[in-house]
Amino acid sequence: MSERDLIAHLARFSGILRARGVRTSLSDEADAALALTLVDLSDRDEVRRALAVALKVLPRDRAVFRELFDRFWAGEEPADLPPDERRSPDRAAAARRLALRPGRARDEILERESERGDTPGYSPEAVLRGKPFEECSAADLAEMERLLTRLAWKLATRRSRRLVPTAGRGRVDPRRSFRKAVETDGELLRLARRARAVEEPRLVVLCDTSGSMEPHTRFLLSFLLSLKRVAPSTELFAFNTRLVRLTPWVSPGKLGPTPERLAAGVPDWSGGTRIGESLAEFVERYRDELVDHRTIVVIVSDGLDRGDTELLAGAMRAIRSRARKVIWLNPLVGDPRFEPTQRGMEAALPYVDVLAPAHNLESLERLIPMVAA
């Protein structure tokens, strides 16, 4: 199910609840849309609990909520649902806009929407997600960068499979529950629960800023800058004929950098490429400090190297020997005719765990399961 379909289903389910007297607001729907990005959508109980919390279902309405959720999950929709609640694309679109702007006050957004009197309409999101970066026009930039920001947020707040104790809702933990009961003479006063932890990814990203990467660099760096804001432990580097550590430039308290500011500060931006020399410098100066068995190293490059490929192979071997995983994102992989025959790619490939495309938003979205695995 696409994100657009998911929001539409959520809007219809909220309409069903309201028709049965369960009060939910547009703000609650926005919270629910956000909550669904943080849970396993294939886990029925987890989705039900997330919606009950986000929609602020009162104790007196829980039985009705559960009944309607079970029916809706099975594909049933009450025939007596009022027409204005049965299909509400305007409400779904409004909820989508609210839910996908993390960090903004929803009340403020609602107020602005009301003042403008906008009627939500078709969003070009589906088209942009599949559009190659090099084909994006100036008019696409703002919307694409917003989508990249949201993708970074999803990556940084992904749920792991690991369960940790929680004071809120979650799966019942029988062992901890019984241990607590021992402290109260065997009386089970409260169930202990566990929930899936939110794990910030440990990433080191090295991004090629050479001339051959120019059509993709702006979007890739926009994504990486957004990722750094929501996952502060992420380390960022740029390289072309030399390596530059970007992390100090985007530390908290610094002026918000943009791809343009980075381009002005990185030597030889859009120039030549010496991948081997740059990665060798990373190994010599930063590997021991920044890379360990929990770290995923992501290299973003088309592999068009003008330097020593033996040096590149040695640097990749050294990185792989220490990292949890090495992912190479190559914009050229998005072309069905692509074969990894470039000298740089041939030298690096034996030490790469995952070779994946990075030519559009859809390809970057695949980074989430790669990091989680």
Based on CA inertia axes, which overall geometry fits?
Answer: globular
| Rg calc | 24 Å
Class by SSE composition: alpha/beta
Number of extended strands: 9
Q: How confident is the prediction overall: mean pLDDT? A: 76
Helical coverage, percent range:
40-55%
The biggest sheet, with number of strands, parallel, antiparallel or mixed sense and barrel status, is: 6 strands, mixed
Distance between the termini: 22 Å
Proportion of strand residues: 5-15%
CATH top level label of the largest domain: Alpha Beta
Number of domains: 3
CATH fold-level name of the largest domain: Rossmann fold
Low-confidence stretches: 82-89, 91-123
Protein model, in words:
- By secondary structure, the chain is α/β, with parallel strands linked by helices.
- The chain has three domains: 3-123, no CATH class; 159-198, no CATH class; 203-372, von Willebrand factor, type A domain (Rossmann fold, 3-Layer(aba) Sandwich).
- Helix content is 48%, strand content 12%.
- The strands form two sheets. Strands 6-5-4-7-8-9 form a six-stranded mixed β-sheet, sandwiched between helices.
- Strand 4 (203-208), helix 11 (214-230) and strand 5 form a beta-alpha-beta unit.
- Helix 2 packs antiparallel against helix 3 (44-54) and helix 9 crosses helix 11 (214-230).
- The longest helix has 17 residues, at 3-19.
- The chain is globular, with a radius of gyration of 24 Å.
- Mean pLDDT is 76; it is low at 82-89 and 91-123.
